[in-house]
Design goal:
309 residues; alpha/beta; Rossmann fold; 2 domains; 46% helix
Length: 309
């Protein structure tokens, strides 16, 4: 079992060094061997703790925001999920980055996963960006890389446009790239249809995007969407009717990367709408690239953040 340590423990290295010094001066070979083994176990245990996550809840807009925070070093990386998703969909990326010591954080947007919906029912992109800003301020994140998937890419674009001074770089993972072209009447009709048959509508919407995914990924994505309240799912989806993708993406001109599903490419895809942004195209994967191709997504993020200063 990993021994629990405070998040900031300036005495850890001093303690380890002191133990090493004591061991080096023990005369008994038996005691030396036993103590050396004990020290090794201690160092391995504390190293494991540094990579473990620290789930916390942050008050935001009269509700609460669930955050999975872990790791310590380097420019932090913040992950934002898509519609129907949660922070759990980034677990492979969190584990990978924390394994190298880097601080990596994922949050459940208001209304999703383990985060409560806002009391004022505001699910606009601006409200989501505001929730992220409140959370990052609480976490003490002054400057970080932010990664957004699908609808979360629109949220990230809004955040980066509003707070460019805090953003060290943006990674768009098969992100939303266009305005959802619905009239007010069509928006109302879509909402009514989802409320009447959320499971059927969501499965029909997601099926083409999951065609190349494994059955386990398909089941995970649909289960997460099922847990998402209908009104939250509808509000997130229809918020894209006000998404000015061209203006928001262009507003942030710092380091940017797109990681995209090559098999799902259409003229409306992010890489087609924003050809000026470097893109890593992954084949044999569905829309949820971080679940379908975790190794490849991790490698692309590693390469990107290595260039961020």
């Amino acid at each position: 079992m990993c021994m629990q340590q405070p998040r900031s423990d300036p005495n850890r290295l001093l303690t380890a060094g002191l133990m090493a010094s004591v061991i080096a001066n023990v005369g008994s070979w038996v005691i030396h061997r036993f103590s050396a083994a004990l020290l090794l176990l201690l160092l391995l245990a504390t190293a494991g703790c540094a990579a473990r996550h620290q789930p916390i809840t942050i008050p935001v807009a009269g509700a609460s925001l669930y955050v999975d925070d872990g790791g310590r070093d380097g420019v932090p990386v913040l992950f934002i999920h898509g519609n129907g998703g949660s922070s759990a969909q980034w677990r492979a990326q969190l584990d990978h980055l924390r394994g190298s010591g880097r601080r990596a954080i994922a949050m459940d947007l208001p209304g999703f996963g383990r985060s409560a919906a806002p009391l004022n029912a505001d699910m606009s992109l601006a409200a989501m960006a505001s929730a992220i800003d409140q959370a990052t301020n609480t976490l003490g994140l002054d400057r970080f890389v932010i990664v957004g998937h699908s609808y979360g890419g629109a949220v990230v674009a809004k955040y980066a446009a509003m707070h460019p001074q805090k953003v060290a770089g943006v990674v768009y993972v098969d992100a939303a790239a266009v305005t959802l072209p619905l009239t007010t009447e069509q928006t109302a009709q879509l909402g009514a249809a989802i409320r009447a048959d959320k499971r059927g509508i969501v499965q029909a919407m997601f099926a083409p995007m999951l065609k190349a995914s494994s059955e386990s990924v398909r089941q995970e994505v649909l289960a997460s969407a099922k847990r998402t309240p209908a009104d939250v799912f509808i509000a997130a989806l229809t918020s894209l009717t006000a998404y000015d993708a061209k203006a928001l993406v262009a507003a942030y001109q710092g380091p940017r990367l797109a990681i995209v599903a090559a098999d799902l490419e259409t003229p409306m895809s992010f890489q087609k709408q924003f050809p000026e942004i470097d893109a890593v195209r992954l084949s044999g994967a569905g829309h949820w690239l971080m679940l379908d191709k975790p190794v490849e997504v991790n490698a692309a993020i590693d390469t990107f953040i290595a260039k961020v200063r």
